[in-house]
Amino acid sequence: MREVAISRPSDNGDRPAEAAPPLAGVRVADFSRVLAGPYATMLLAELGADVVKVEHPVHGDETRSWGPPEAGGEAAYYLAVNRNKRNIALDLKHPEGRAVARRLCDRADVIIENFRPGVADRLGIGYEAVRRSNPGVVYCSITGFGGADRPGFDAVVQAESGLMHITGETPTKVGVAIADVLAGLNAAVAILGPLHRRALTGTGCRVEVSLLQSALSGLVNVAQSALVTGEEAGRYGNAHPTVVPYQTFATADGEITVAAGNDGLYRALCHAIGRPDLAGDPRFSSNPGRIVNRDALIAELEAVFGTRTAGEWTGVLTEAGVPVGKIRGVLEAIRAADQPATVTVAHPTAGPLELMRTGFAVGGYTPRRDPPPLHGQHTRPLLAELGLTEAEIGRLEQAGVVRQAPDPPPPPPLPHSTPSTPSAPKESR
């Protein structure tokens, strides 16, 4: 196989520097699967990195089969965390597949993998092997439990980390794979620091992220309180251990959450609901007192909130400057968001496809809007970029080492107004 310099897609064009993608020119080789790694690489892609997602040519990323629901034959789970990437279907267990992977690694600025400990080394793409030929690489390993050879599944990590212990009325898993999401965020942040140093000095390093450590660090004040007191953390359901009132309340037709995070907000709450006597009651005048007398205060507030609807109380408390919100369903929350929560992309098999936005925006820069790739969608062009001839690519395809997805029909054009715009006026909040 002949050696050539790999090209990198450019988003810059003739745009001014401040409008260029922050990570333009950065190549990410993504050997991760499922959620934490793909979420991290999607965040890097959102910042303009060229992410090449590597999948097995037969079964691919497990999340491709984690449906229904599906759109255009792709599982919603996979669609959630893989936009703005290119895709190569490559068998890493085959010697020639490993040789292709090494070429990709040698030309990458960042490598992300979430193999079980030791697997990347056996495949010849571990950190020590890669850095000998690519000393400036930023190499990120995501594991479930650090060095322990245990499969890292979010539900198990939530149990082992204490997250499940402090959630719900009985030990309850958070409704989204929060340990994976935290690990993905940690990985993206941890990669950006060494990338900056690499730009200045040319040196790389290894970044290690675990789901367990991400979950433990995500306990923040709850963990610190346990360390300070030496006592096991309690479980408060929809209430707060150290701020009162900061919880849900039933109204005449639904539930709301009230967050009176300081004494001033508590007094404003009492006056807004027509109970100024509660503000003057010495048992409740300070937050430490409200913690000690939590049950008595909450009983008084519950009686008041049950007299009016959620919409009425939301309007009253918002007008008074008291933090309050309705408990919404997921789809309801997306449609009610103050700013558009979704973007629409032209997916090759699903057509116009609504996807969730990331939680940040970088001023002056509009991210690409490429749909999540089909399995093996970019295999042939990527192999050509890596220097393989048509004959070599054909031979690898024939041997099952690589796979190119069939060309899909052109997607229908995007609508002028995307579904991210609510179809009805938002209610007063």
TrEMBL record:
InterPro entries: CoA-transferase_III_domain, CoA-Trfase_fam_III, CoA-Trfase_III_dom3_sf, CoA-Trfase_III_dom_1_sf
Keywords carried by this UniProt record: Transferase
Pfam families to which the protein is assigned, alphabetical: CoA_transf_3
Residue ranges with Basic and acidic residues bias: 1-17
Region entry Disordered, spans: 1-20, 394-429
Signal peptide start-end: none
Comp. bias (Pro residues): 406-416
Presence of the UniProt keyword Transferase in the record: yes
SUPFAM superfamilies, per the entry: CoA-transferase family III (CaiB/BaiF)
Keyword set includes Transferase: yes
GO MF term list: CoA-transferase activity
Organism superkingdom: Bacteria
Compositionally skewed regions (Low complexity) per UniProt: 417-429
Protein name, entry field: CoA transferase
